[in-house]
Structure formats: structure tokens, C-alpha cells
Amino acid sequence: MSESPVVPEGSGFAEGRKNGEVEKEKEGRFPRGIWIRLLAYLVVGHVLAGFLYLLFEVGAK
After folding, report:
1. 11-39 tens-digit pLDDT
2. CB of 16 closer than 8 Å to CB of 22
3. Would you say 16 and 9 are in contact if contact means Cβ atoms under 8 Å apart?
4. Are 14 and 7 in contact (CB under 8 A)?
5. If you write DSSP's letter for every residue of 14-61 in order, what string do you get?
6. Is 3 helix (H, G, I), strand (E, B) or coil?
7. CA of 9: how far to CAs of 2, 21, 52, in Å?
8. Total-model pTM
């Protein structure tokens, strides 16, 4: 179990990861879809909060 697995050189897994550039490039980054969803939730959340605030302000008068 202490031995590391050997990947054949001709396999698709070994290609593109020779220098570890692909893994380092995506390390610590979130997918683009998560950023878009987060931005949409923040905008919609603030619009909803503003509407509720306005609703209560108008209702209190």
C-alpha cells in the first residue's frame, strides 16, 4: 500500500499533467457557475430586503 501507482505514459491521464500545471492552475479556484450563482443570490437577496424595508416603511405611515 505504500507504493504509488504507476500510470502508463500513453494513457490520457498522464498527458497534460506532466508538470502539474493543470492541477496548480485550478487549485483554490471556484467554478465560474458558483460565482454567477453567488452574485445572483446577493443581488436578489438585497432587492428582496429593500422591498421588504420599503413595504414596512410605507405601512408604518
Report:
1. 655 555 555 555 555 678 889 999 999 99
2. yes
3. no
4. yes
5. TTT-SSSHHHHHHTT---HHHHHHHHHHHHHHHHHHHHHHHHHHHHH-
6. coil
7. 21, 17, 61
8. 0.51
